[in-house]
Amino acid sequence: MKNRELFGGRIAWVTGASSGIGEALVYEFVRLGARVIASSNDPEGLDRIKNRCGDRSGMVVIVPFDLAETGNIKEIVDSQINSLGKIDFLLNIGGISQRARIEDTPLWLDRKIFEINYFGTIALTKAVLPYMVSRKSGHILATSSISGRFGFPLRSAYSASKQAIHGFFETLYLENKSSNIRASVIIPGRVITQISLHALDGEGNEHGKLDDGQAKGLTPEKAAKKIIRGIITDKREILVGRSELLLLYIRRIWPWLFFRIADKIRST
Hints:
By secondary structure, the protein is an alpha/beta fold. The protein has a single domain, classed as NAD(P)-binding Rossmann-like Domain (Rossmann fold). It has 11 helices and 7 strands. The protein has helices spanning 3-7, 20-31, 43-52, 73-84, 107-135, 156-176, 195-198, 212-215, 220-232, 246-253, 255-262, and strands spanning 11-14, 35-38, 60-62, 89-92, 138-143, 181-188, 237-240. A 7-stranded parallel β-sheet has the order 3-2-1-4-5-6-7, sandwiched between helices. Helix 3 links the parallel strand 2 and strand 3. The model has no long low-confidence stretch (mean pLDDT 94).
């Protein structure tokens, strides 16, 4: 099936849509003929993304909200269902990272990172899922990280929140595959985004630096194309990156070697 035949006329909801991989996915879905619900906590950024779609800007619906504040998420989802009729793809891309040692990370900061990365993600997913089940159609994706498959220095809460994502979405798939609901976890390595700039230090302030390794990573555009390919081929796990993805296999096969490497690396 040609890509435009798969995505044309479909509805894709993308969080974290005002920058990075989320932004690139908006453009990619629009190019493929899908309508996009673009969400993030940056309304001005979303306006910029919509305007950059030019003649196709009418295919983008802006729905700003904060993943840390999802008390009204059901109302937000109901509104979009009433307006658009369905949601075919939900891509949970939004999230926040961390750059602090465990002893320098207060418990409130652990909770904040989990509130955004885990609870915000599953809140939107739980609000959308019943509509997909009733239609017996839909694909839900969530963003993890290679450090969502193992621990990594300065990422304790971030790594833990992303590991929780795997448990939730693997269960979602197993419980709902009989209803024709697909679920995938996106596992990015190094991608050139703003995630390290906005990562939180031990006081909850932004890290404000682009990690050296990340600066040499995959472009968001290439990452988006890999994710689209993963959707087309119905991958349970969609790997996005370059040689750093080898750490996933090293951790599985030679754990002793992984710990030696991870002890020396400080940037993903």
